[in-house]
């Protein structure tokens, strides 16, 4: 496996560490608090990142097994609303994210160079596994880490 692919896998695996470090020591009140009625709590943000990880796991497998087919989408607002993430413990949510990420990391480490080159389609745009890892997972996690930080700041200012 080339170094670039190893780096993408490493960055992907680090998302679990980053999420855990951002939330695991927060109070239950803060984890469940919402800055507005329509905003997500920190636990709902983590739940959304689990959903995204699941969808991206499917996308990767779809690209590997059925290249050049459309990649899956999901109604993330509806998913969060229906899944009751605030009824979980944060440790349960983090453990789920960790397990999915570890499983995907193992799969990614076994891909051939030819598999890494396969793509799925987002409309007319070809989407690679690298794109999914870098943009749909790592950048997405970083965006929501910012949202978590804003929730913490807003909570601490009340």
Report on the structure:
This protein is mainly α and 158 residues long. The chain has seven helices and two strands. Helix content is 70%, strand content 5%. It has a two-stranded antiparallel ribbon. Helix 1 packs antiparallel against helix 5. The N and C termini lie far apart (50 Å). 25% of the residues are buried. The mean pLDDT is 97.
Question: How would you describe the shape?
Answer: elongated
Walk across the major sheet and give the strand order: 1-2
Unreliable segments (pLDDT under 50, ≥5 consecutive)?
A: none
Strand content: 5-15%
Helix content: 55-70%
Determine the number of helices (DSSP H or I, runs of at least 4 residues).
7
How widely separated are the two ends? 50 Å
Largest sheet: 2 strands, antiparallel
Total beta-strand segments: 2
Helix-strand makeup class: mainly alpha
Mean pLDDT: 97
What order do the helices and strands follow?
A: HHHHHHEEH
Radius of gyration: 16 Å
């Amino acid at each position: 496996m080339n170094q670039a692919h190893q780096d993408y896998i490493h960055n992907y695996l680090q998302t679990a560490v980053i999420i855990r470090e951002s939330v695991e020591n927060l109070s239950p009140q803060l984890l469940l608090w919402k800055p507005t009625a329509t905003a997500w709590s920190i636990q709902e943000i983590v739940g959304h990142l689990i959903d995204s990880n699941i969808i991206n796991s499917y996308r990767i497998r779809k690209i590997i097994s059925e290249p050049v087919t459309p990649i899956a989408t999901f109604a993330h607002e509806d998913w969060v609303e229906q899944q009751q993430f605030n009824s979980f413990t944060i440790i349960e949510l983090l453990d789920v994210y960790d397990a999915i990420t570890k499983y995907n990391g193992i799969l990614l480490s076994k891909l051939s160079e030819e598999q890494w080159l396969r793509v799925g389609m987002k409309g007319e745009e070809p989407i690679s596994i690298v794109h999914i890892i870098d943009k749909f997972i790592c950048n997405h996690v970083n965006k929501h880490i910012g949202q978590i930080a804003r929730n913490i700041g807003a909570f601490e200012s009340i």
